Amino acid sequence: MLSCKGECKTTFKQSIGKTIFRYMNGQKRCGVCSVYLRWAGSKCPCCSAVLHVRPRHSRAKEKYYEITGIKWL
Fold it and tell me: Within a 13 Å sphere around the CA of 56, how many CA atoms are in the beta-carbon half?
């Protein structure tokens, strides 16, 4: 089981902003650590969980795809 070691919250944590724009600015979200971070890899440097690169909520997804111009469904 994955667990947060606390490194991400002190070293990699990014400033607060709207969720949709966070993903557009290159930030990724770790579901285990519950923190947005700017990281080049696909896994969290703290807990090695896979990072989210797009919004998960349907309304946020719609807006994200509308702004980026990517076709969704």
Answer: 6
For the entire predicted model, the pTM comes to: 0.72
Q: Dig out the tokens for 6 from the structure.
A: 């606390």
Query: How do the domains of the chain map onto residue ranges?
Result: 7-68
Beta strands in 1-73 (DSSP E): 28-30, 35-37
Joined together, the tokens standing for residue 47 give 């807990």
pLDDT in tens, 37-71: 888 999 998 898 999 888 877 777 778 777 777 77
Tokens of 14: 């990014």
Coil, strand, or helix at residue 3?
Answer: coil
